Amino acid sequence: MSDNSFQKDSLSWQLRQLQQKISEWWELQTTQTAANLPEIDLPSWWDNPIILTTAKTVAWLLFACLLSWLTIKILRIINPYIYDLRNSINSTTKTREKSEPELSINSWLNQSQKFQQTGKYREAFHCLYMANLQRLNDRRNIPHQPSRTDGEYLELIQNLSQPQPYQKLFMTHQQSLFGNLEVSADLFQECQKAYQEIKDE
């Protein structure tokens, strides 16, 4: 992409274009209105450039105030929805933290296998994910903290010798939890392969 096309897509360029169009429209309206007025001797100060600049400045200030007012109104309308979304994400995380029992790696893997056999790949993946967290905790690589997010884990695993298989599990978990990613049989097998790589380290 050239610098020229980037500049044309930028917000400042678009605002300048909008300002120019409004100025041209205003000039056209005032010219037409002035042409339709009867011949009146206007005071000499009417054509003063300072007066015109002041009038334009006041018009732009009024426009900015109107835009600010509209923005505040829109934010007040959507704020409860944003608040509800934040609360639902927080409550999902807290519920998950409270409801996760302390199981051994083998227990998590056994549960994962049972879910896989019944075709419940989302649940099977979740158990595999929990086995991964337990393995990180047991090896003392990254101690388990219920409040820790997948994003935080993704940063912490960068210090490990082979972070790629961990990335696969954490990113899949993040996308399945917040991005509505469907965990299929193929995706579950990919995650199993990643877990096997972790196990073989």
Total helices: the number is 8
| Shape annotation | rod-shaped
Number of beta strands: 0
H/E element sequence: HHHHHHHH
Strand content: under 5%
Query: What percent of residues adopt helix (DSSP H or I)?
Result: over 70%
How many separate domains make up the residues? 2
Helical/strand content category: mainly alpha
Distance between the termini: 44 Å
Q: Show unreliable segments.
A: none
Largest sheet: none
Q: In angstroms, what is the radius of gyration?
A: 31 Å
Mean pLDDT: 79
Task: Explain what the structure shows.
By secondary structure, the chain is mostly helical. It folds into 2 domains: 47-99; 101-199, no CATH class. It has 8 helices and no strands. Helix 4 packs antiparallel against helix 5, helix 5 (121-138) packs across helix 7 (163-178) and helix 6 packs antiparallel against helix 7. The longest helix has 51 residues, at 49-99. The chain is rod-shaped and about 95 Å long. It starts with a helix and ends with a helix. The model has no long low-confidence stretch (mean pLDDT 79).
